[in-house]
């Protein structure tokens, strides 16, 4: 009997170990090699293959930079697109001393410093990469970058650039576009249930306004997820052991119970309370503190770019890129 128990216990241990290994997720790393350069003194991170299917311009949110392209969730999205032949160009807003925001209030391609510089960057890329003047264009923007991508897409299309589709993540249509009659560029909007920075009602309003113009459009809404170590295993340099340590540390803040369910009713209080977390030393060693914060925001369905809808967004882009 004792021998049988040992065999059963051993089998159970092996099964648990196998299940644990199967549950692990690989870290999200770029599937292509990006070029890091500057244009007119501003950082550019790009990947442009020969004969790209289309080139996606990427626009960061407030306080962001071209490094938006390197974040875990963004990398996951871009991997999906580059695997299908798309190129990527990420740069940064002209305003770099304050909130580092794109100018989404001025629709002029000559007096808006961001739009003007982007037209010059486009010309440079056509002259120096696998792009041509006929390569289809698309755009992805987050928050302030979401508003800007609607301005960029609409003004560039009006100026004769071949903008086929845009994705406005966690942001509304820019005011000048609304004032001029709304979007005619096919647009995906995404938002999150608990976003208190740009509440989902405004994003839904932009979607409905775009739909009313009979412009192709979709909207996707992120819901909250339970706290799980798998979310943190997506971060390069974070092992499954460290991911479990992150979850334990976050549970210790009192925001979540041991099943991973949030127990602090107010989401803003939950975010503030979670920010007091004492993370494992391995997180700092991997330089992953901001990544942990971002992945936690994704779980809470607050104001954060997420790869959750990468497949339907890519399908939408594919439809209009052709």
Could you describe the 3D structure shown?
It is a single chain. This protein has 322 residues and is α/β, with parallel strands linked by helices. The chain is 42% helix and 14% strand. It has twelve helices and eight strands. It has helices spanning 2-23, 72-82, 113-128, 144-158, 175-179, 200-212, 229-233, 240-251, 267-274, 281-285, 289-300, 310-321; strands spanning 35-39, 42-47, 55-59, 87-90, 137-142, 163-169, 187-192, 217-222. It has an eight-stranded mixed β-sheet, sandwiched between helices. It is globular.
Describe what is shown at a glance.
With 322 residues, this protein is of the alpha/beta class. The chain is built from twelve helices and eight strands.
